[in-house]
Amino acid sequence: MRKSNLEAAQTRREIVVAAADELRQHGIAEASLSDIMAAAGLTAGGFYRHFRSKDQLVAEALVAAGADLIENLKLALASDGFNGAVDAYLSSAGPDGAGIPNCPFSALGSEIARAAPETRDALTLTLENLLSTFETGTTGGKPGRRNAVVALATMVGALTLARISTKAKLSSEIVEIVRKDVHRAP
C-alpha cells in the first residue's frame, strides 16, 4: 500500500533528522545509508524513494541541523542575550568536551570542506545565517559582523579541540576559557 504524500513527507523528515544525528556523531564518510535508515527505523531499501543520493541527504540533513541550531540560538539571544547564545552554543561540548556538537561546522568542518559542491553550497548559506544570528546579538558599539565572525570561529575551534582531546580536564579548560573570552567580545 502506497503512503500518502503527508506520510512520505513525514518519513523524509525522520530520515533527515536521523541522518543529521548520525553524521554529527560518526562523520560523513563513516555514516552509511543503512545505518542512517536503521536510525530512522526504516530499511535501507526505501532510501531512494526519498533521495537521489547520499550527497543530497547529507546536504539536507546538515542544513536542517544548522537551522535547528540557529533557532535555538535565536531563542537564547531573545531570553539571555549574546552571552546566553554563546553558552547555548558551547553547551553541546558536555562537561568533558566529548559531547556531539549541535553545530555541523564544529562536528564536521574538515569533512564539509571536502564534501560535494551541493553540500558546500547549502552549508555556505547556513554559515551566513549562523553568522547573521550572532551578528544581531553583538552590541556595545563594536561592529557586529566582525565580532560575530571572531566569536563563531573561536567557538567552532574550541568545540573541535575539546572533542579531539582525550583528557577531560583539557577539554573543559578549552571550552571554559573560550566561553569567558567570547563573553567579553561584544
Automatic annotation (TrEMBL):
Pfam families hit by this protein: TetR_N
Domain HTH tetR-type: 9-69
Annotated Gene3D superfamilies: Homeodomain-like (1.10.10.60), Tetracycline Repressor, domain 2 (1.10.357.10)
Entry keyword annotation includes DNA-binding: yes
Stored InterPro entries: DNA-bd_HTH_TetR-type_CS, Homeodomain-like_sf, HTH_TetR, Tet_transcr_reg_TetR-rel_C_sf
Entry superkingdom: Bacteria
Keyword Transcription found: yes
Residues annotated to bind DNA: 32-51
Keyword set, alphabetical order: DNA-binding, Transcription, Transcription regulation
Name this polypeptide is given: TetR family transcriptional regulator
Source organism of the structure: Rhizobium calliandrae
